Structure prediction request, 543 residues.
Amino acid sequence: MEHLRVLVRRQASAAWRFRWAMVACTWIVCAIGWVAVTMIPNRYEASARLYVEADAVLTPLLRGLAVENQVGGQVDMLQRTLLSRPNLEKLIANTDLDLQISGSSDLEAMVQGLATAIKITPHTRNLFTIAYRHASPKLAFDVVQTVLTTFIESKTGANRSEMQNATLFLEQQIAAYERQLRDAERRRADFRAKYMDLLPSDMNGVTRLETATQMVRALQGALQDENTKRDMLRSEVAAVPPLLVTETDTQGTGTGTGPGAGSAQALLRGLTGPSKQKLDDAQARLEQLLLRYTPNHPDVVFTRREIDTLRANALREAEQLAREAAGASAAAAGDAPTPAAGSRSRSQPNPVYEQLKVRLVEAESALSSLQRQLSDATRERNRLEEIARGAPGLQAEFMNLNRDYDVLRKNYEELLSRRESMRIASAAEADADKIKIQIIDPPQVPQNAVEPKRALLTSGVLVAALALGVGLALLLAQFDQSFHTLDELRDLGLPVAGSISMVAVTSPSARIISVVSFTMAIVLLLGVYGGLLFRIARSGGPL
Prediction:
């Protein structure tokens, strides 16, 4: 620590020996620096603040119908394109900046300078500032005003230009897709006309071959059903007698088909065998029909007639059995049977048999028609199968044509929808302002300079001058060949006998005058610095 203190004292002592060099350097640097600061021309800044927002009513109303332009994206685009070379050249031509141009090199330098000097600073998403600094207040105002006008014009012009380009592109694409779609429709129609029998229709997707195959199967099933129905009718016709035999009593007053009602019921109750079973089945079937239909229903009427016929046949069978039993008894007794006196037999057509014959004829006619239809359907199916075997990749080719056609039609319809959206958006841009620009702070001719900050520069010059003066004094002290302590002498390796105290060669008054002179020089320098600051503050310039 003591060594450091000694070193500081030595350096301070050495620097004090070169104090007038330090004062001279400080004055010279301050004089040059302050003159230079004074000669820097003032620069004035003109600025304008803008607020950009979307239409609060029109934008939500057109959402989903028209092409949406994001406000942030449009502002970013305008900021990027506003300082483009064409716009800057237009700005130079509309202001007095063109008076400073004497050649193409000057124009290039001015364009690059303006691109750097014009500041577009966003504060929020919708609020930003346009600023420009120049030595001429009026020229700064003119530049900001021109940029602002260009910005407002570019907002509408850029949107309309983009929409016109997009609309032109959509029209070209729609025309191209329309040609492709017509070609695809023609190829699809030609292919369908050539293979109409094997291609599915647009309604249900079923081919004629599939329809013919289904028709053959349906006719085969119907033919089997009709064959079964005809066989049943034949069996019924065979079981029903074509004639009914009745007996007429010539001595009595009435006619009948046999014995009285009481004896007929007794005969039926005593009858067994197939006839009895058929009669019981018919009666059970009649009861089932009456549960579903009215008594006048054709099936009910037909069943009743069938029951009457079966009952008459059963009675005849019962009477025949009764006569055979009576004849057997008479033969056993030795008496021959004789017909009843005063009675005779009479035959009449059976109506049930006639109806069954009519239904049998109808069934055979329907069966013949079904056979003919089945034959025609089979031939048609065989013909279509033969054509299908001749074109194995027909379905795949048709699916490819349909897929290409569907893709083209989907893209074509999508382009038409986009074109309508673009038209609505163009109408909104032309007839209404979707984006509103509000000038919050219009540009004004600046009255006070913003550059340079002379007070700050003046203080900086003073600090730099003092630093240079002290540095010069320390540098000169490094070249001083004198020794200040015994240790410095001993460091040379020479024997040192001793030291003599400092001998004053100057009077105290001379040393006081020297200190006062140095102090006055520094105070005078600080006074000049204070006067400059006072003058800068009175002038109203930036500090």
About this structure: The chain is about 70% helix and 10% strand. Residues 483 and 489 are 7 Å apart (CA to CA). The first strand starts at residue 44 and ends at 54.
